[in-house]
Specification:
- The protein is built from eleven helices and twelve strands.
- The chain has 295 residues and is α/β, with parallel strands linked by helices.
- It has three domains: 85 residues, Winged helix-like DNA-binding domain superfamily/Winged helix DNA-binding domain (Arc Repressor Mutant, subunit A, Orthogonal Bundle), CATH 1.10.10.10; 89 residues, Periplasmic binding protein-like II (D-Maltodextrin-Binding Protein, domain 2, 3-Layer(aba) Sandwich); 109 residues, 3-Layer(aba) Sandwich (D-Maltodextrin-Binding Protein, domain 2), CATH 3.40.190.
- Strands 3, 4, 5, 6, 8, 10, 11 and 12 form an eight-stranded mixed β-sheet that branches. It has a two-stranded antiparallel ribbon with strand order 1-2. It has a two-stranded parallel ribbon with strand order 7-9.
- It comes from Rahnella woolbedingensis.
- InterPro entries: LysR-type_TF, LysR_HTH_N, LysR_subst-bd, WH-like_DNA-bd_sf, WH_DNA-bd_sf.
- Keywords: DNA-binding, Transcription, Transcription regulation.
- Pfam families: HTH_1, LysR_substrate.
């Protein structure tokens, strides 16, 4: 078996081990499920082991399959780390994040980095899998579960606020509880993980959140922002991001009343193989500039 075929087989074993699905593995490899089955069967004949067993939750690897998965990661990392420092400035970086943050990043990094914005998944397990398999170089969003192969850094923490049109007929420079109840809202279907150390405040916020008069539910944070700018609708937004948006749209970002004070944390995630790459860390520094507080 050639080295190229060895890597194909090892990668198929690794992807099936992490995804648990022949179909997902085929999608990542851009082949048919039959081709994945062929590679796995080839590995079974070579090793004399079943490698995987079927469960209700998908295909589960045995000990040998897990060892082969780790072998693939080691070989792939040796190849990638040898070329990464040289090639990082020459290739496109795959970055997955919210569409509104894509806009802010694009403005900041327009002339410095080639970015390929990948569709941001609603599923945290899928986000982790794409990072592990290096389909995505950088994932920016809510905090993911701890994973030994993924570096996780807090990008920013912000109080929660509201975004409203600058031409809103009733909301001026202060947002009140009456404003919350008397206006219609846009809901971002992906949602955000709001946090607070105060359990009573958290329950109160949840109750008020459920009392919104919802006009629209939209999947794109950028579309939600644009709709807010040209209507009388209200949306929740991290106040730091709202302030960054103000120069771009006819909107204003306002703090919430004390009864609704919550916060939002955003994290940047990347594969640990980038940890020692100087060019990559320069890129992270540029990304951090997007969320620096305005003076």
């Amino acid at each position: 078996m050639s080295i190229e075929m060895d890597m194909k087989v090892l990668r198929a074993i690794h992807l099936l081990s992490t995804s648990g699905s022949v179909t997902k593995t085929a999608e990542i490899l851009q082949v048919t499920p039959g081709a994945v089955s062929y590679l796995i069967n080839k590995a079974r004949k070579s090793t004399g082991s079943a490698l995987f067993f079927r469960t209700r939750d998908g295909m589960k690897p045995n000990t040998l399959a897990l060892e082969l998965s780790q072998r693939y990661l080691g070989v792939a990392e040796q190849f990638s780390e040898g070329n990464m420092q040289k090639s990082l400035n020459e290739r496109t970086i795959a970055l997955s994040t919210y569409s509104l943050f894509e806009l802010l990043l694009s403005i900041t990094l327009l002339n410095t980095t080639k970015l390929n914005f990948s569709r941001s998944s609603h599923d945290d397990a899928e986000r982790l899998m794409k990072l592990r398999n290096k389909e995505v170089d950088i994932d920016i969003g809510s905090r993911l579960a701890v994973d030994s192969s993924i570096v996780q850094l807090k990008l920013f923490s912000s109080d929660l606020g509201v975004l409203v049109s600058k031409n809103h007929p009733t909301i001026k420079e202060t947002f009140t509880m009456d404003d919350w109840h008397q206006n219609r809202h846009i809901i971002w279907s992906r949602g955000m993980q709001f946090i607070s150390d105060n359990m009573e405040l958290t329950h109160s916020f949840r109750a008020l959140f459920d009392q919104q008069e919802i006009a629209f539910v939209a999947s794109s944070s950028l579309n939600v922002t644009a709709l807010c700018a040209y209507s009388d609708l209200v949306i929740l937004i991290p106040l730091l991001i709202g302030k960054k948006v103000e120069p771009l749209f006819p909107v204003k970002a306002l703090p919430l009343p004390a009864e609704m004070r919550m916060s939002f944390e955003c994290y940047v995630h990347y594969h640990h193989s980038f940890a020692k790459n100087e060019n990559f860390h320069q890129l992270l520094s540029e990304i951090q500039k997007v969320t620096q507080n305005q003076n």
